[in-house]
Design goal:
single chain, 370 residues, Alpha-Beta Plaits, four-stranded antiparallel beta sheet
Length: 370
């Protein structure tokens, strides 16, 4: 039987636990989002110039040459009939995320990634690139020096590459030109979406909001619409923004489902506080099989007509560790953890036992294996 200290160390190393007898209350704003209030994805096609011979080879990427010629034509440079063979330009795809409530003049970060055979974007400058949303409208314009995390060094017989030099970022590299859609300005009914849908949590939020609105407006303004959303009416005489700021500070106790998350690759186990295990007896022993191949050479007698033969000797041994027999009775999370630690198991052993307990019907929780 493990000592108390050993059991505590094993618990710290083998289990990642989210548990508490006193479940902390959380703010409504931390577990919900407002329907329609979300970021929007932007994308654009552009050119990065000023590369030190690490750009696209124009023979293999004709669209880079076409884009470069079109850009120069717009700038008043006549390049018709010229045979361009520069390697200082790369065609790139520019992506960004337009935050909710972004207005003209705000700056947002952008990501830049090569589209052709450029080997590095280090030292390059992104030329003015319009960024469009899914509706086809231009919401921002990107431009600036590309910062690359990786690098590439090449010699005659060897190439060293660290990180990904063909992609980079520009902090504040895009200037917002069009305001993001604002769905709250004229809306008098708001829909709150739960990040983790649950009937109990939705009802708790509705009750908390109604308790607040009854005190302030003498009316119940919230109503649940299912496990994932609820509708809230904005009271007269106040704005949606001010009302959201008020109800966002209300605190509720979310209802956490009984669930065990297992990551077999890392041996991580996360057990929620509501997991229960019916009384069950468990034993576990590791079986180790060892196979040893020993080669042997058989030499013929001198001046005989025999041949040298290589043979092998195989030794197979099996060893099974004595398994500790323990009673696991998970009336609460602490009892479950204590019962598992009493057996002195490694993470993979605990995973196998949890799966077996689930198969036996004694685990009253969802078992999710990743």
């Amino acid at each position: 039987m493990l000592s108390l200290l050993h059991a505590l160390v094993l618990a710290a190393l083998s289990l990642t636990l989210i548990a508490s007898d006193v479940w902390a209350e959380v703010r409504v704003k931390d577990i919900t989002t407002v329907r329609g209030v979300r970021p929007n994805q932007l994308v654009g096609y552009g050119l990065v110039t000023g590369l030190k011979g690490t750009g696209d080879s124009l023979r293999n990427s004709p669209f880079t040459e076409q884009s470069m010629n079109a850009m120069l034509e717009r700038l008043g440079v006549n390049v018709r009939g010229l045979d361009m063979r520069t390697k200082n330009v790369a065609a790139v795809l520019v992506t960004a995320e337009l935050p909710a409530f972004a207005v003209g003049g705000n700056r947002i970060d952008i990501s830049v990634a090569s589209l052709a055979d450029a080997t590095s974007l280090a030292g390059g400058t992104l030329v003015m690139t319009p960024l469009q949303a899914a509706d086809g409208q231009v919401y921002a314009v990107a431009q600036g020096s590309v910062v690359v995390a990786g690098f590439q060094a090449q010699g005659q017989s060897e190439t060293l590459t660290h990180g990904v030099p063909t992609s980079g970022r520009i902090a504040g590299g895009a200037l917002v030109e069009r305001d993001a859609p604002d769905l709250l300005a004229s809306s008098r009914t708001l829909f709150l979406e739960l990040k983790n849908p649950d009937f109990g949590t939705a009802v708790a939020i509705v009750d908390a909001i109604n308790s607040y609105t009854v005190q302030t407006t003498k009316r119940r303004l919230a109503k649940e619409a299912g496990p994932s959303s609820l509708a809230v009416e904005v009271p007269q005489g106040t704005t949606a923004a001010r009302f959201l700021a008020s109800i966002g500070q209300l605190k509720v106790e979310p209802d956490v489902p009984a669930r065990i998350i297992i990551d077999e690759r890392t041996g991580t186990i996360v057990i929620s506080r509501n997991v229960k295990v019916s009384r069950v007896a468990v034993t576990h022993g590791n079986l180790t099989v060892r196979v040893v191949e020993t080669p042997a050479v058989s030499q013929p007698a001198p001046f005989s007509k025999g041949q040298t033969v290589v043979t092998s000797t195989t030794e197979i041994s099996a060893h099974q560790e004595n398994g500790n027999f323990a009673i696991v009775d998970g009336v609460d999370l602490q009892s479950l953890v204590t019962g598992l630690n009493r057996m002195g198991l490694k993470p993979l052993g605990i995973i196998a036992i949890l799966q077996a307990i689930k198969s036996a019907g004694a685990l009253q929780a969802d078992l999710v294996v990743q």
